[in-house]
Amino acid sequence: MLGRILAEGRTAMAGAANVYTHGHHESVLRSHRWRTAQNSAAYLVPHLARGASVLDIGCGPGTITADLAALVQPGRVTAVEISAEALRLARAEATARGLDTIDFAVADVHALDFADDTFDVVHAHQVLQHLADPVKALREMRRVCRPGGIVAARDGDYAAFTWFPSVPALDEWLRLYQRAARANGGEPDAGRRLLSWAHAAGFDQITATASVWCFATPEDRQWWGGMWAERILRSDLARQLVDSGMATDGDLLRVSQGWREWTAAHDGWLTVLHGEILCRA
Ligand SMILES: C[S@@+](CC[C@H](N)C(=O)[O-])C[C@H]1O[C@@H](n2cnc3c(N)ncnc32)[C@H](O)[C@@H]1O
């Protein structure tokens, strides 16, 4: 059964050009599509002025992008992605919302095809943690941001995920995810490192903050825990863990069951800590 699920995942990812640990399986997109400017970029929103030009890097399916566009219109937002498939979803999201102020391009944040000083705001949500060279990416984000503009980034910090009750299979989930992300060149405990990466990229005016997502209602648990119970079996992460020998099908089924156990706990509680940086270019 799991073998078939993983084979389907492989087919869906055929031709993908980038190693993005989660991939864009529906169970992953369900998580991305829940995101809004309010729950994922609140630290940036007060700094967005109408008419500002914004570059949103690694926009995924584009719900945050669309919110940013609504906040700055008639200013334009440029949404870039390394995955053409994710970009197509972001375009569909903009169309569904009737937004015509978003431009789309496939691009790698390490080498952006924009002139120096192009944008007022350059934003990346949950992207730097997946990169081999987040400092180079921040330098590139700064290059395309006008002097005095803002470079903003927010990333989760997996080692700082906190949950109750204790479920041993979730400790295993965390170890497996961290191994897989690092094997792809990323740093899953990115939130705590953003300030140091910004320093290394040459920024000297940085505001570093933190914020959390908290899932503690039955509906939240069903959504977050149910999503991970499926992701650990069906996403690119599952495929990588099994193909690389880091986990067996049985391990993943145990972890999936652990997420279901947490979901069913009537006092289940989980927080995702995020680091945030607002840097003056
Ligand atoms: C966790 S998702 C975040 C999506 C969106 N920002 C959000 O928060 O809903 C990270 C996204 O970054 C994209 N990505 C990964 N490496 C990238 C790169 N080098 N340049 C641009 N985008 C990249 C992935 O394809 C993926 O869609």
Written overview of the protein:
This protein is α/β, with parallel strands linked by helices and 281 residues long. It has eleven helices and eight strands. Strands 1, 2, 3, 4, 5, 6, 7 and 8 form an eight-stranded mixed sheet that branches. The longest helix is centred in the C-terminal third of the chain and has 17 residues, at 218-234. Mean pLDDT is 92; it is low at 1-18. The structure holds S-adenosylmethionine. S-adenosylmethionine binds at residues 18, 20, 32, 35, 40, 57-60, 64, 81-83, 86, 108-110, 125-127, 130-131.
Topology summary:
Blueprint: H1 2-13, H2 26-33, H3 37-40, E1 54-57, H4 63-72, E2 77-81, H5 84-96, E3 102-106, E4 119-125, H6 134-143, E5 145-156, E6 162-164, H7 168-183, H8 194-200, E7 206-215, H9 218-234, H10 236-243, H11 249-264, E8 269-280
Parallel strand pairs: 1-2, 1-4, 2-3, 4-5
Antiparallel strand pairs: 5-8, 6-8, 7-8
In short:
The chain is of the alpha/beta class.
**Count of helix runs:** 11
Work out the helicity level. 40-55%
Summarize the main sheet. 8 strands, mixed
Beta-strand share of residues: 15-25%
Determine Rg (CA atoms, Å): 19 Å
Name the assembly state. single chain
Average pLDDT level: 92
Jot down its keywords.
about 280 residues; alpha/beta; eight-stranded mixed β-sheet; 8 strands; about 45% helix; about 20% strand; disordered N terminus; binds S-adenosylmethionine
